[in-house]
Design a protein that fits this description.
Layout: E1 3-5, H1 7-14, H2 18-25, H3 29-36, H4 45-55, H5 59-62, E2 63-65
Antiparallel strand pairs: 1-2
Length: about 70
């Protein structure tokens, strides 16, 4: 998938555990885990905003675009 989730990297840099971040953001640890591992199909802007606020980061620190080899863009 061309969208790569670097949430685990930012969490490690900030030394915050999944359960603590989930509580601060207001979502379940299971849903945050799905996002962290790239298995989430969607993310609400309000959730992304809460994650960025809790981690003091920008959306681009958490998500990035990495084209597939077959993409001609």
């Amino acid at each position: 998938m061309p969208i790569v989730v670097d949430l685990d990297v930012v969490m490690a840099q900030r030394k915050i555990r999944l359960g603590d971040l989930a509580e601060e953001v207001g979502i379940t640890p299971q849903n945050l885990s799905k996002l962290k591992t790239g298995r989430a199909k969607a993310v609400r802007f309000s959730t992304l905003e809460a994650i960025c606020q809790a981690l003091d980061c920008q959306p681009g620190d958490v998500l990035r675009y990495e084209p597939d080899d077959g993409d001609a863009s």
